[in-house]
Amino acid sequence: MSTLPGPDGHHRCRWCLSTPDYIAYHDTEWGFPVADERRLFEKLCLEGFQSGLSWRTILAKRDNFRAAFANFEADRIADFTAADVERLLGDAGIVRHRGKIEAVINNAKRLRELVRQEGSLAAHVWRFEPSPDDLPPYGAATSPASIALSKDLKKRGWAFVGPTTVHAFLQAMGLINDHAEGCVIREQAAQARTVFQRPR
């Protein structure tokens, strides 16, 4: 089954029922459309950190990541130096992986370039929203949209943005409503997508 009853008796996507933190994230964030630049950049960064790990690990450390990475304000991160990399490698509150840390700094610099060329990160990523006829099957690890956006970002010099990472980003930021059929939150996410003003 793709859904199971939660503590309140309502059925939810089964992946979220292992911890209360997951349920709160699932019910209030995951799958709801986002146009905020900082939140989109943060999510791309955190999905990169998740690579090879569980989202539960990253979610538990999210506040620590925000503190360590200047609340994911890209213009500030783009100015991080080698000393900041060493500081972050010594921060036990985050995932201390040099490649992933350096990727966040690199991607902040690439974001500056993308904004100059495309207007905003939000407008750019929402251009990759799949049409209703091109939605991936439930539970897919990648999608045509995530493959296309991954290729686009890699061409622009971004790092840790593979198709699986980008697909998780598209699900979480509401470009795809991947709440399971029967999930109590699915219709709420669908309604939010209906009234959402796509950035341009």
Automatic annotation (TrEMBL):
Pfam families: Adenine_glyco. It comes from the Bacteria. This is DNA-3-methyladenine glycosylase I. It comes from Falsiroseomonas oleicola.
